[in-house]
Design goal:
Elements lengths: L1 E5 L6 E4 L3 H8 L3 E4 L8 E5 L9 E6 L20 E6 L2 E7 L4 E3 L3 H11 L3 H4 L1 H17 L1
Antiparallel strand pairs: 1-2, 1-7, 3-4, 4-7, 5-6, 7-8
Amino acid sequence: MRAVLIPVSEEPREVEIDGLADLQALVGGRIEPVGWIFDNCPVLYVNDEGKINGMLPNRAVFVPEDRVGSRKWDGGTWAAGEVIDILFGPIVAVGFDPLTGEDRDISDEEIQRVKERFSGSVAADNSGAAEYLRMYQRIVNLEK
């Protein structure tokens, strides 16, 4: 199956995977889908325990322009540039068929969406680490 691997601090690149075992090998363990980033087109997979088992921060997920001002779960609204989440460890993007619930080859259009969101400058490649450090510094400053 055609997929895109997004390694920590590296540019996304196309890979071929052959089932669950390959997907788990690429993310370093049990997989967790992160479908909400692209509304399942494509779906991203990360390590299920990447945030708690010592994996490095990979990419920060920022509020997309079309969601600025929309309601958060806590009643507030999303601001431009706000961090929604940080994904840890390698990320794999695959296509998803909502009618069958099955993964499929990622399309050229979906590859472009992944590269637009997660490629670019060193800042984009290290966005997870940079945002993690910013959050850590805020916590340390609050404790002083």
